[in-house]
Amino acid sequence: LDLIRRLLADADRDDLAIVLTRRPGTDALDDVAADLGRSAIVSELRLDGLSADEITALVDPDGHASPWFGRVVHERSAGNPFFAIELARHARERGLSALAGESDLPLSVVWVVERRVADLGAGARAVLQAAALLGDEFDAALAVESSGHPDASAGLVAAGRARVIVPSAGGGRYAFSHAIVRSVLESSLAPGEREALHARIATALTARGGSVLPHAALAHHWCRAGVAHVDRAVEHTVAAAADAMHRRAYEDVIERCELGLAALDATDAMDGRRLALLLMAAEAHGRAARHHAARERAAAAAKLASRLGDVDGYVRAATVALPVLPDVAAVPALEEATRLTGAGHPKRAEALAALGTMLVETDAERADALIEEARRLATASGDLDALHQVLAFDTLYGHDVSPEARIELATRVLGAVADRTSVTTIDALTFRGTAHLERGDLAAAERDFATHAAIASELRSPGPLAVDDQRRAMRSLLAGRFDEAEAHLHRAMLHVGDDPAWVTVYGAQLVTIRLEQGRFDEVLLLLDGLDARDAARPIASAVRAYALANLGDHDAARRLLDEMLAGHAGWRRDLLWTVSTGLLAEVAALIGHRPAAAQLHPVLAPFAERVTVFTLGAVVWGSVERFLGPLSLLLDRPVDAVGHHERAMAVHERFGAVTFLVRDRVGLAAALERLGGSANVVRARQLRSEAVTAAHQLGVGHLVRDVTDAEPSGATG
Questions:
Q1: How far, in whole angstroms, is CA 144 from its chain's centroid?
Q2: Residues 71-130 pLDDT 10s
Q3: Sheet with strand 173-176: strands edge to edge
């Protein structure tokens, strides 16, 4: 140091340049730096970390590594060239996975960090270890208090001067200047030391008091404080998970529940606390579209509730992770739930409604009886969960329940829900919007769907977000924008992954798009790829018959149509009853099957004023009147056919359903020609011309291939 000061006396010589490097926080060099700062001929340069490109050039000068290698090294090293070189060498020796683990550091880096911290003194080491357990950013006073070292305050100051930590936003808060420093400090604690320090942090947090305890932080630290503190760990974990559930932060719920369950595993405790955590974990997994994990946690909860004799807990476990589509695997637990909930039990209606829903495809008669009993009990008691389940059943399977009745029930449910962002609210909006669509009230449906979309966007919950994208696909399809519809469809699946129920909806929408495009060969290939369960559904056979009829294979279409009509009464509770029956009507009209028309017309006539909607508004297949028109004409009722087609056109014009309007014009033209008369013939010719023009503009020429009029001028495609 004396030499440096002596050289400074001659610092104004032209042939002398002095370059000094120092690390902040070294007292003696800080004094020299102060002396230098008073000299006008001295410039001070603060060295920051290297950029990503500079680090890449440093660790991979020949460009042989993967493109992301330099970026990952830069991210982990924060631009520190020594850390970068050592991390890169370590990764080449141990494999690239070494870059992923925070605790997997080269010994050279660990030694450098430990030496630097040791130079700051025991107080600094103690407070920095406490800070390391608090996170990348921490409250300075809490770190000092938790450290338990008398020199912790001075150590914090020393660490700040050395720039091991730097001030953060907010008074009294600091952050580690480098994540590697925190990682080394945390790893340096022995297991017993780490547990004791977590306990001191949790104690200090509790002592701070306040009207609202930081349950998430307390759960984090008590769960890591050792088996002696399990009771407090679980208490705060349950509270933290409940807070996260209220915020719809499902990933946080899952993390906290699993943390609490791990703490309980250390004691083998089987009690209500474990049950509460299992139930919350099951619900959160389901809401996060992790249905397999949801069912696993629900099964564990049911087993524990049965062991504890907790009937309410058992019913909750049996219903919390129900699949979207009926599944016989869920029936045994629900049968037990209905057995446990005798007459008068407040959860009986919910158990009955859930069981009825799961049985609808295998025992429709019993399902109807269970749903009606659940409806009676829930209506009398106001059980919101049961009413919600009944409403879901009516929307999906209750084809004989009028849209008006469903709107009334959905409105009652919405009026009783206190939380505007609850799952019940989101579902009831979907159910009511779907009922409005069926009534042909597009404006009312759009209001409900807009509210649903706003809540889904706010919550970022996978299921509701997927539903919104499916509805966007529906709107694009109605407008004849097929590529746009398919793009929305793919985005919907990004939210929910490969859950079977969502794959089924995806398949239904994709098939609908292909049918409207006239790509019938592709539809048959899609049907051939269905799994056994979906292939056995009536909709699969109805779509196949429709595709075959359009491809000209009328004999095969007729055989399928006859087979389906023979068993039509047996699938009255099928999820897609209306659209399947509508497709059969179209097949009958395409191939001229009068007996089929005679059978189908009275089946569809009671639904004439409805719009065909399925998968909760994901697909709108047009007014039921559009099926009745061709059937009436086939049955030699041209006056009725004209009325059906004109009413269908009015609905489709409101919906902007352009491909259905093409069909309406062709069908109405045929009915008018059958009626005869010069005015009708002229109008029919105009309708056919409009249909041909629109069809070629939309690229759906298959809809008018039997139209004999010459293509009008200006048509494209």
A1: 42
A2: 888 887 788 888 888 778 777 777 766 666 566 778 888 888 899 899 899 999 999 999
A3: 137-139, 173-176, 165-167
**DSSP assignment of 602-656:** HHHGGGTT-EEEETTTTEEEEETHHHHHHHHHHTT-HHHHHHHHHHHHHHHHHHT
423, 287 contact by CB (below 8 A): yes
For residue 176, what is the enclosing H or E element? strand 173-176
CA 259 distance to own-chain centroid:
23
Structure tokens at 515: 């049918």
Determine if the pTM surpasses 0.85. Answer: no
Looking at this protein, which amino acid is placed at residue 252? D
Q: CA-CA distance, 252 to 77, in Å (whole number)?
A: 28
C-alpha distances in Å from residue 345, one per residue of 307, 373, 393? 19, 13, 22
Question: What would the pLDDT profile of 330-378 be if each residue is shown by its tens digit?
Answer: 999 999 999 999 888 999 999 999 999 999 988 999 999 999 999 999 9
Provide DSSP, 146-167.
Answer: HH--TTHHHHHHHHHHTTSEEE
Assigned token pair, 246: 């209220």
Hey, what amino acid is at 705?
A: R
Helix axes 122-134, 152-161, angle to 10 degrees: 80
Three-state DSSP class for 175?
A: strand
Give the tokens for residue 332.
Answer: 């045994």
- The token duo for 177 is 């200047």
CB 209 within 8 A of CB 191: no
Q: Rg for the chain (alpha carbons), in Å?
A: 35
Residue 711 CA to chain centroid, in angstroms?
47
